[in-house]
From TrEMBL:
Its EC number is 6.3.3.2. Transmembrane segments: none annotated. The lineage of its organism: Bacteria, Pseudomonadati, Pseudomonadota, Alphaproteobacteria, Rhodobacterales. InterPro entries: FTHF_cligase, FTHF_cligase-like_sf, NagB/RpiA_transferase-like. Belongs to the 5-formyltetrahydrofolate cyclo-ligase family. The keyword Magnesium applies. It comes from Paragemmobacter straminiformis. Pfam families: 5-FTHF_cyc-lig. One of its GO terms (molecular function) is 5-formyltetrahydrofolate cyclo-ligase activity. Its cofactor is Mg(2+). It catalyses: (6S)-5-formyl-5,6,7,8-tetrahydrofolate + ATP = (6R)-5,10-methenyltetrahydrofolate + ADP + phosphate. PANTHER family: 5-FORMYLTETRAHYDROFOLATE CYCLO-LIGASE, ATPASE INHIBITOR/5-FORMYLTETRAHYDROFOLATE CYCLO-LIGASE. This is 5-formyltetrahydrofolate cyclo-ligase. One of its GO terms (biological process) is folic acid-containing compound biosynthetic process. Keywords: ATP-binding, Ligase, Magnesium, Metal-binding, Nucleotide-binding.
């Protein structure tokens, strides 16, 4: 099997695990995330607008003391840009039906809450396959230290995420069962 085939099989298993965990609720995950992020108050933060069965970081984003942005896909095979978001701001449907702010300043985050399909104990994440976050983290980290915080259900953990040379590691993972640093 190629690395792409291995990743596709892992995604399928993780989507099923995530759907089951989503149905059970996210417990205290957002509170754990907000507590961890409080040490980074004042730094520009990027979050995401949860879709389908993704764990929802919105309350942690709203609690952040500093600029908060959400990802906007500009084009295929390019890094993400982040448009400033605040609770209640006007949203429009973006690429892949993700909601994005209708207007606002662009921010460059120093802390990124990263959505994912799966993760492992080494700090690697399995994304959706477009490479957007790997490209984005590589670009941001080439400019300054950038903290990547995975946010997921504990059920999304894999024994080992299949990786290649483009995969960016997480610095931490927050789940409903707690925080792990890598």
């Amino acid at each position: 099997m190629t690395i792409d085939e291995v990743k596709a099989a892992a995604r399928k298993a993780c989507f099923a695990a995530r759907a089951g965990a989503f149905a059970a609720g996210q417990g205290q995950a957002a509170e754990i995330l907000a507590d961890y992020l409080s040490a980074h108050r004042g730094k520009p933060l990027a979050g995401y607008m949860a879709m389908r069965t993704e764990i929802d970081p919105m309350s942690a984003m709203a609690a952040h003391q500093g600029a908060v942005g959400v990802p906007v896909i500009m084009a295929k095979d390019t890094p993400l840009k982040f448009r400033e978001w605040s609770p209640g701001c006007a949203l429009v449907e973006g690429t892949f039906k993700a909601m994005v702010p209708a207007e606002g300043a662009w921010i460059e985050p120093e802390v990124v809450i990263v959505p994912l399909v799966g993760f492992d104990a080494r700090g690697f994440r399995l994304g959706y396959g477009g490479g957007f976050y790997d490209r984005t983290l590589a670009l941001l980290r080439s400019r300054r230290p950038t903290l990547a915080v995975g946010f997921a259900f504990a059920a999304q953990e894999l024994p080992e995420v299949p990786t290649d040379e483009y995969d960016q590691k997480l610095d931490a993972i927050v789940t409903e069962t707690g925080l792990r640093l890598f």
